[in-house]
Specification:
Four copies of one chain form a homotetramer.
Chain A: H1 2-16, H2 20-36, H3 43-50, H4 54-60, H5 64-80, H6 88-92, H7 99-116, H8 118-127, H9 132-159, H10 168-189, H11 197-211
Chain A binds a DNA duplex through residues 19, 21-22, 42-44, 52-60, 62-64.
Chain lengths: 219, 219, 219, 219
Amino acid sequence: MPEKEDIFEMLFENQENMTEKQKKILEAAVEIFSEKGYSGTSTSEIAKKAGVAEGTIFRHYKTKKDLLLSIIAPTMAKFMAPLFIRDFNKVLLSEHQSLEDFLRAVIINRMEYAKKHLPSIKILIQEIPFHAELRGQFKEHVMNKVYERLKVIVDAYQKKGEMIQLPPPSAIRLIASSILGFVIGRYLMFPEADWDDELEVERTIQFILHGLSVKQEEC
Amino acid sequence: MPEKEDIFEMLFENQENMTEKQKKILEAAVEIFSEKGYSGTSTSEIAKKAGVAEGTIFRHYKTKKDLLLSIIAPTMAKFMAPLFIRDFNKVLLSEHQSLEDFLRAVIINRMEYAKKHLPSIKILIQEIPFHAELRGQFKEHVMNKVYERLKVIVDAYQKKGEMIQLPPPSAIRLIASSILGFVIGRYLMFPEADWDDELEVERTIQFILHGLSVKQEEC
Amino acid sequence: MPEKEDIFEMLFENQENMTEKQKKILEAAVEIFSEKGYSGTSTSEIAKKAGVAEGTIFRHYKTKKDLLLSIIAPTMAKFMAPLFIRDFNKVLLSEHQSLEDFLRAVIINRMEYAKKHLPSIKILIQEIPFHAELRGQFKEHVMNKVYERLKVIVDAYQKKGEMIQLPPPSAIRLIASSILGFVIGRYLMFPEADWDDELEVERTIQFILHGLSVKQEEC
Amino acid sequence: MPEKEDIFEMLFENQENMTEKQKKILEAAVEIFSEKGYSGTSTSEIAKKAGVAEGTIFRHYKTKKDLLLSIIAPTMAKFMAPLFIRDFNKVLLSEHQSLEDFLRAVIINRMEYAKKHLPSIKILIQEIPFHAELRGQFKEHVMNKVYERLKVIVDAYQKKGEMIQLPPPSAIRLIASSILGFVIGRYLMFPEADWDDELEVERTIQFILHGLSVKQEEC
DNA sequence: TATGAATGAGATTTCATTCAT
DNA sequence: CATGAATGAAATCTCATTCAT
């Protein structure tokens, strides 16, 4: 999947012309925002942790909120990115790709993503409810597009007879709940518990598969 | 279930000797905290919405954080309450109570609860990550106790052969994800979408039942 | 002229419910704004001179600009006030009131006013060019109304044959220039020179009278 | 009047070795200072409008105040310039030059000057009250010298019997008020009103002439 | 009990100025 | 000469909390 790298690179191409200091600011902001929340974090705290003068923050980000957005926007973009890889459907929906393999791929992919970008994701989740513009952007640019893509996939598996004939929104909700429930529990709520990741992934997959299995009717 | 009323009353018994003003303060705080978050809310804003003087808040709550706790504590208590109703197990686990009926009862109950206490729950969810004491309390007093109770229930249904032999933590996680996923989608994320509540509840129940069904192995 | 007092009182009636501190803030602000200009004055400077905490300023005036407006608005009002005294025209334009007496009355009145409210007037003059809203208000509420009143007066004196038949705007401009030129020179530009006020007033009056005299044509 | 050109050239001789950027800076500074005042203008604003980097301003002007002075000093010089043209008195006070013609010449000259250098003049007027050094310089180098020159002229016209025997300061004040009152009204206060310039100039001249006429006593 | 003026610590933001490139 | 990132001091403004009434 070389395309994936391209897209991620594109999302970050601005990071290229960032100063060292600016990168430090961004890093510090991500860390502290995710720990204390946006409103609970002061710019002086960020400046101190980043090792820059407070004024430097405002040379790069007009306001504190700008700084928040410059963290959240790429996080949203990266969240969508994998869905827009060229040949995405072609590969995933090939006859040889079972729903089970698809789920496994998705869960593992999202787990890695979550592990890597934990703080940014925490910020995204925590702050979206408090910022109307973000909420709007999120629904419009992320939710809707993600939904469209997933609908196609659900349709395909339903046609292939691997998934019960539920309306796509309901099917997606149930699948997403199960996956996110796992990821959130694993990384956000109880990261320090000792998880057998592989086993839990399998359990989650089997739960979804059986929950949506066509065979359930036959039994 | 007259006991339920008793417990709720107990949780609120202090509300009895609350002055009108104090009640107004609490109401206003709940509303604004849930909209803007604790750190994003100023006490003067609360005072204005409550129609009291700024100083009055501090007559009743030593600090702003006190006010937050006075909202979150009862919310946590109420969250646990139904599990501690006398005869809880007796009733729920009677031979005549199938897993399906149990799930239906729980979902409907939690839905009503969520609808009624939406703002308080939002505050609970949003603020817990930022306040170590709360996190500690929540895990100790709520999570653990809830888990204990649920474990008993899971054990029972597994013994009755209505649920696959998953370790209880995993089973509980999967059930909870599905239910909370529904409730959060329904009330927090897309409250204004038009939901067919009854139908979605049934879909969620069937999803969980099949996902955890013993029969799955036979198929 | 008891009405005059009433109007002034009205303009200040809010000063009644001002705290001591608020009055101090206003006084300090007037003084420093007039010395250093609005932009050149810091709120901390004002607070220090007023003997209050800086926060106190913002309890009474939402912004620094608010504080400026709370100085300028009444200054504009007071500037207009004398023109709106009941019976103003009746008295001034009575047959027994010559243009000369009218001019003398106006100059002396405005001199006293200028002497008394020097700093506020300086602020008004200095800041109006920099604040579009003020400029708008000033033209709409002050200039236009003042002009209307003065036009009536000019018309009357022209009808009485005491003033040449110039278009009122031009006549008013010439009279105003002469009077303001005197007042500005006297109080703003060279307050420390030794002026023989009475003599200069007379010279100014005679200058205007002859400048606008009907008899000039006869000579 | 070739001398006039010489003097102006002298005043600007530094502009010759100005870089393009420096000229842009000066232009931008004049424009913004006159709109928002010195204190209300930031150097970064000037840099942006001038299309240069922030640092560039400080290559050419050690401080922001330096930049202000580099605008105000030549403006003051130019204000005085016409008075120091060689043969100034000779020409103006020739027997063939009546007071009326003199006034007409002065008014028209100052009008053209005002029209051309409006922003610089605004800055001069606005900033002088706030900068003690400027005030000192202005009185010493400009006011006094201008006064001396004008006194000579007034004396001459009084001797010629074209002007009433007022003390020169008073005469100059009255003349200056009338002229400046017109110019300020015309260009600073109501530039967008439709003025019949020629007519208003004549009215102003006649007003002054009659106001200071010797014949007034005869009437 | 309730008020709301007052506080001062601290938050966000601005800005003139410096300096390495 | 020119740049623009960086600075840090200071400016504006916010806010939880106190206290006299």
